[in-house]
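Lab manual, section 2.4: Encoding a predicted structure.

Procedure: take the sequence of the chain (671 residues), apply the prediction step described in section 2.3, and record the output as structure tokens. A sample record is shown.
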Amino acid sequence: MKRLWICGCFALLCGACDDKTADEPVWNGDNYVTAFSLTVGEATYEAVVHDGRITVDVPYDASLDGAEVHYELCEHASIHPDPATIRDWSQEWQFLVSSYGQSDRTYIYTVNRTDVATGGSLTLRTQAEVDAFAASRINVVEGNLTIGVEGGEAIVNLDGLAGLVSVRCDLTVTNAYRGEDLAGLAGLRRCESLRIGSAGAPNETLKRIELPALREVAGDLQLCGTAVRSVVFSALQRVDGAFAVGSDALAEIVADELESVGGDMRLAGSTGNAAKAPCEQMYFPELQRVGGELSVARFGKLGQLATTFGALASVGSIAYEELALTASCEFPLIETVGAVALTDCPALRTISLPRLAAAGSFSVEGCPAVETVDLPLVERFAGDVRLASLSAVTDFGALLPRLTAIGGDLTLDDLSGLAGVFDLSKYAFSEHSAVTLRFVSTPKLTELRGGGFAGSLSLDAAALAPQPETMPFALSGFERLDVLHVVGFKGLSALSLPVAACTDLLIENCGTQRAFALSLPALEEVRGTLLCKNCGKTGAANSASFPRLRSIGRQLAFYVNVSSFASLAFPELERVGDGFGVSDDASSDYQRLYGSVRAAEAERGAGQHAALDVECLHRSGCRVPLPRAGNGDGRTLRRTCQLQEPDGDCTRLLRPATGRIGLCRQPFVGD
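Recorded output:
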């Protein structure tokens, strides 16, 4: 029975096959293109058929005019439109392939233009090599391309490079190129970097640089020439490195599509140090980001920059320098910036960064016409703040209404309008910050308050005219400082400073026009050097008093003219230098001091101090007796001083009764 059942099933299957006609195919669902190619002359281009696409790779410069098509389909499949009817194979086509059973499949035909590339870098040394480049059909240089050799044969045109679209690495046009334009590079779309001339060797013949197809520079773009009048990058969107253009003759720069510069962006109207370019305006309407410094420098006629960078939202730092006619510096979208430096822009009237909240540093110098500074939101400068010759600034607090912190130094140089009280306690400074005020005309400032300021303070009146006889403003709240430096108050008859402790105290060129009294009534400690240089009028009864000073950590130096000070009072001074008492060891470090010390006992009694006369002698090898004052036994310590060169006199020094005084290891050597 089992055998009969199997045989019956086989008979049924055979009967089913017999129902098909002899003409009907066994497979009727296939609708594939199995092969496709184009033939032009002796060249055949095989297509890749995959996933509903027919792609033919053809060299970028190959023509498909008159191409013959060859294709294969699944058996009994049909294609529409018929490829044999198509004449233009350079454009995209859509085909419908249908199976015998009317199942359809769509294919998209496209041409992929392939590059003809070099195997590496290439140098074109002569005009003949440039001309021959066209015959190579190369459109991509896989390495560096260098046009010309410095000091070599002149190249006058680049027509042979018309097919070039990409340089994978650096494209360098040396000064051997003597043409006036770059018309031969009109097809260039991309390069790693582009260099034409340099600051040390600018190109001297190029007048127009126009690269209409260039869209991307993956590295630096550097153009430097003495004769370049026009720079046009109409399609350029991105420079990943630096963007630098400098020319003595620049009249026009166009980069309307430029959106991003990854490094510095430097625009200069000169290849040297003086402004020469006639450029009157420039415009970058799409520029949104500069990763490094944005620098515009040395343009004598560039008057309009108000809207040049209106779309710029991110920049590393901003620098305007030597812009003779530029009236405004405006960046409406910038919120943070590393630094803003505006230097030698005599016509600048407006500085506006309305959204700026924080910056690394801020400097305005050589811009005397500034009337408006619009920085309403700035809260912190991480670095230095320097303002010079801004007569319109009357109130530092009103200038920067939200400022609370300065991480670097603050320099106010010749702010003739600054008036009233300037209170440093409003701002948080770093422990190493220095505040410098330089005066050129009579200050309107009435008081300088320190509060908790503990950095360095410098008051410079060297250029002040006329010189005041009394300190023109009060000092208060400076109890502990790093360095206190007062210089150039030549007309003072008296100077009293409120500091109680500091690292260094430097008083220079003060009181030289009349008898001068220097007083530091609160000073107890100088951790480093106490220097008084060229103070007091020669021949006058000048004096210096340090009634509470006990310790000088490194050096005590009065570098003055002969007989400048009649009295130097240090009644509580115990230690100078390393704090050890004066030694009689001739090999001690102190033998390097200039001059010699001659000591004589003074009358001793309750509250009395010994007097030391200090005199520079024109001899060496003297033995110096030093009395141990106040001990009543008259013993002396002896040491040897070795004279090197005399360097002035200090006629009288009051020494404490303890008998312990150290001398500085290194003498101050004056000019």
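Check your result against the sample. The longest helix spans residues 2-18.
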